[in-house]
What does this fold into?
Amino acid sequence: MVGYQGAEGLTSAVTTASIERPAERPAGPRSDPAVIRKRLAGFGLLAPALVLMFMMLALPVVALVLMSFWTQSGFELDRSISLENYRQLVAPSDETTWWYGIPFPLAYPVPAILMLKSLAMSLVATIAVIAVSYPMAYFMAFRVTRHKALWIILITIPFWTSYLLRVFSWKIVLGFNGAINSGLKAMGLIEEPLEFLLYNPTAVVITLAHAWVAFAILPIYVSLEKIDRNLLEAASDLGDSRLKRFFRITLPLSAPGTIAASLLVFIPTVGDYVTPALVGGPGGTMIGSLVQDLFLKQNNAPLGAAVSIVMMLIIAVLVLLFLWAIGYGKLRARRS
Amino acid sequence: MTQTAPIIAMSGLVKRFGTLTVLHGIDFNIERGEFFSLLGPSGCGKTTLLRILAGIEQPSEGALLIDGQSMSGVPANKRPTNMVFQSYAIFPHLNVEENIGYGLKNIAISRAEAAERVAEAISLVKLEGLGKRNAHQLSGGQRQRVALARALVCRPKVLLLDEPLSALDKKLREEMQLELRALQRTVGITFVFVTHDQEEALTLSDRIAVMDRGHVLQIDTPRGLYERPANRTVAEFIGSMNLFSGRVTRIDPDGTVEIEGAEGTFRGTARSGFKAGDAAVAAVRPERIRINAAAPEAGANGVSARLQASSYLGDRSLHVLTSTASGQQITVQSGPSAEDMPAAGAGGLWLHWPTDAGLILPD
It folds into this structure.
């Protein structure tokens, strides 16, 4: 799905920025032939990636933006530029739709509700991922002294099977006659299978969290591994208990990796549609499901494009607000 | 606890890493208010010993008392010591003031008092006006001062310094040596200073423990170490020393010992007990040797040698000679003037030194 791809592009841009430092400009005047040759060589090396990015990311996004200004009526596609789709997304209505106590006074409230729901589900999934992966990364960085490479390989094992298979395996674990229900029944703890396990937002969050943990461990691990052990010894020497030292030294110094990891999980999961489709059931649909629906089932690609664009913009604004709120620029400047 | 009791008492400290023993039974005391150095080549265990004092490492055996209190089971954060790390370990996410005030957050004092103590420490190490700087905006010397202030601001009973000057260039290092010495006099805290630089140890310390391969070879004042080294290793490590090996032939009641070797017969004072036939070395400092054309009178120390090279160093001259008997290299230091410098290539020279300038050490 195009919207999904767009979100992923944004992820990679953010994570690269967090890991790499601005390269130093080569010395010498711009007209120096050696410098020019060096630059050309640089662009030469970049060319395949640039071409690919242009074809697979920039062009589709431009096409998507363009399409969002068209309109669809029945089988007719009106290619004249109009803001009709966007108007439809925010058109007010006298009849207020309520969702978990939040009023949506919109004529077509589904996209807005799904957007908010997707953000909330991704946020929960992201928090769950960080809560699980931080201790694992900490263990790898500070407790594992030998065979570190082996541990890293072990963490990548989930990637050896396809994402679909992993989602299906959660169906087997959480399902009506699944592992959890049969186990609890066998132990005599429940009479009837628990139905709240599968086909709801919780199932989506669990599956997403499991799928993304491995992606989050590595950036956190790298930032923990980079912490000079002398700093920890110095903190103890200056009177910090182990817990205090963790909050005063380890956590702030691993913040860049942890932030990168949370963005890496949050951004793409907002637009996910595969997981809700498989384990979400009717209650677990997300904004990505709507986009897919608009494009493929409702035959309203222009509206689907508009929803995608709005979603991308909202995520971008939220990420920027988040980075600004935690003073990320300052954090990066202080690392030396 | 009386004020005269040692601030640090170590007995039988042993440290093993797996099968490797890095400290073999360390027993000595460090006195209150001393500037004490642990000197030795890299890998001699001096840093490990310092880390045991700090509580970062635990000894495998032995007891450690700091200010009369047993440190067994006392973690680093509960000890009355603070450390200046070799890498300085400046917290990169905190500015100078926050770094220096780090330890004060763990002491029950008011915010105002903490701020006052930080300001005091900043002026003590001459970092005025740099309080808001971030760690990466500091030079090596400034980082070193931050590390020093951060440790001193906690008013430890003992300040531990792990080669704090080794990362600085020569000129800055010499400047910091003087400042460090003055600072120690000002604050009156016991300093335990680890270094592999014998000149630095001699310049700074009240007393020095020379360590090698996990053993303490000698503990003495700088003068004591230089003039009365306990053994061959210490003699070679502190300053430069000419050594002539041989066997003990005579022991006088006044402590003078005579040995006989390939280069001749030498007499000198001995610290340890010898018996006739023991392997020993005669040791003499380059500046105690006089170059002469004639042989010494009977019974006096003398070596027949040939001059290989002389170098003029402004305030003194250094001469490299080889002994006629064995070809062993001998270094002699003389005054700078031309009269002190024998003609290059001259053969049949004699090197003289008085009995009290010679030392007889166990080999």
Remarks:
- Residues 170-187 of chain B form the longest helix (18 residues).
